[in-house]
Design a protein that fits this description.
The chain is an alpha+beta fold. Helix content is 45%, strand content 18%. Strand 6 and strand 7 form a beta hairpin. The structure holds calcium ion (CA) (2 copies).
């Protein structure tokens, strides 16, 4: 009868089909890691640019986070409250090494003078917290114009506050943030984790920024 195939032809057809199916499956498997890596690379590139944009053109919340928040948040939990006053008490009459931020008047000893200064500066900002970091200068609010005091605040606090800065930037990725002043080459910010563990992808975003009467290059490396 026309249209019928023999048993041998049937077996040959099935064998050819299975061979091609296995071939395509293994080819797909070999491409899969590359595709997955590319997807992750794109996500990291996109996030790196967004972080740089947020840092450069956002004021932060509150806009004066660099002043009261960094100076008053002695225990570095991102909120100003009684725990910060307790940090001074815990190191009463001890050297500043006990709690470097608690030595408000920078005379090397933590005592009544620091407590008085903390109350005067921070008492009116009880329960305030930092919600977001941004380097934009609130006095001008211009694109790519950074505040020098905010630059210094991130630069000096990153030494012992990288995890806080990471939390306030709102990323689960690790990063190195560098601001190089041009043409002097002086590093105004050098912020990175104490232990760098790379994850196979390393994206670098470079942006030209202005601050004060200078300009510089903000380099954000994300992995
Ligand atoms: Ca605190
Ligand atoms: Ca002191």
């Amino acid at each position: 009868m026309k249209g019928q195939i023999s048993f041998v032809e049937y077996i040959v057809s099935i064998t050819i089909f299975i061979t091609f199916a296995v071939f395509f499956f293994y080819n797909l498997l070999s491409f899969m890691p590359t595709y997955l890596n590319e997807i992750r690379n794109e996500r990291v590139r996109s996030e790196a640019y967004q972080i740089s944009e947020l840092l450069i053109n956002d004021l932060g919340e509150p806009v004066n986070w660099h002043f009261f928040e960094w100076d008053c948040d002695l225990n570095r939990d991102l909120i100003i409250n009684v725990e910060d006053a307790n940090a001074i008490s815990a190191c009463w009459d001890q050297p500043a090494t006990c709690c470097p931020k608690c030595d408000m008047n920078r005379d090397g000893v933590i005592n009544l003078f620091d407590a008085v200064k903390w109350v005067g500066l921070c008492g009116g900002h009880f329960e305030e917290s930092i919600n977001r970091l941004g380097l934009s200068d609130e006095n001008f609010n211009k694109t790519n114009l950074l505040s020098e005091v905010k630059i210094d605040a991130i630069g000096s606090n990153c030494v012992y506050g990288y995890e806080n800065i990471k939390k306030l930037i709102g990323t689960d990725l690790d990063f190195t943030l560098i601001l190089i002043e041009r043409p002097s080459g002086q590093a105004r910010i050098l912020c990175s984790p104490t232990q760098i563990v790379t994850r196979g992808i390393n994206v670098t975003v470079k942006r030209i920024v202005a601050f004060g009467s200078s300009y510089g290059e903000l380099i954000l490396q994300v992995w």
